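Running co-folding for NAP.
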Amino acid sequence: MASPDSRRGRINDGSRVALVTGASGAIGKAIARGIAEHPGYEVVLLCRDETKARHACQEVMQATGNDNVRVELADLARQPSIQAFAGRWQGPLHVLINNAGVTPRRRQETPEGIELQFATNVLGYFWMIQAFTEHLRRSAPARVVNVASYWAGDLDLTDLEFKRRRYTNGEAYRQSKQADRMLTVAFAERLKPYGVSVNACHPGDVHSTLSTNLGFRGSQTPDEAARTPVWLAVSPACHTVTGKYFERMGEVRCPFGENRRAVQELYEICLSFNRLLKKAHLSA
Ligand SMILES: NC(=O)c1ccc[n+]([C@@H]2O[C@H](COP(=O)([O-])OP(=O)(O)OC[C@H]3O[C@@H](n4cnc5c(N)ncnc54)[C@H](OP(=O)(O)O)[C@@H]3O)[C@@H](O)[C@H]2O)c1
């Protein structure tokens, strides 16, 4: 899924580059806007729908007066799409914000046969960090912000795709957000030596496609919800912190990240999907 912007190629002029996934959605667009307001930031909106992406890009540019905003396209539930996108990437990457998410009411699978919430909300984050690790390392100090949630829990390492349990989108969603918080710790440890921090946060509760599917109507504005992720992405105060979980711009203890054995096991399961997908690709 190549985008016109990527085909044109980019020359970075020394500004800091931030990539926001799900930037056509409620919170993602507000995050993109919040970062674009900061002087010296180039912001890349990573979306899957070109029309929505173009509208979001226009809105962000108009609201901030920042012309260094552009669009890229990829399907974050599919590893080949992420790898192709990362392969097209030119120049540095200083901030990666993993924010795209879904919560379909009925269980769905990707064309590769992976349950869609796990593929998008968990493996999508995992694959993005993996695919951009070299870019982030070369651009260090660099930051990854994983948009998670306080509404998290009941992760079952033996049934991550709801093959055995009855699927409800709320349970699958809570599990996926727990996994995001656990993988934050796993990647923080691995990337710390290279000057790349990885933190997770709860944004805020807003009305969106995602919240509607979960059956609630958040009362905060997208800008309010973007405050913590934007702060983690750009604030000098967050320069050295890594492997932590935040709400309302404050660190909150995260029990999910403290279970070292489970964190490691989840990381290895995510890695095993790489091997499975590679094998399927080779035998196709
Ligand atoms: N809303 C809340 O109250 C709330 C609370 C806590 C945490 N969060 C977290 O905040 C994040 C954003 O949520 P939101 O409420 O802003 O949701 P949203 O408005 O529904 O936006 C979700 C975004 O993700 C994109 N997306 C979904 N699947 C994708 C895929 N396979 N490839 C590329 N992009 C994909 C969507 O693109 P399309 O527009 O093309 O579908 C959309 O841009 C999520 O991680 C969510 O868990 C939200």
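Result summary
The radius of gyration is 17 Å.
DSSP finds ten helices and eight strands in the chain.
Job closed.
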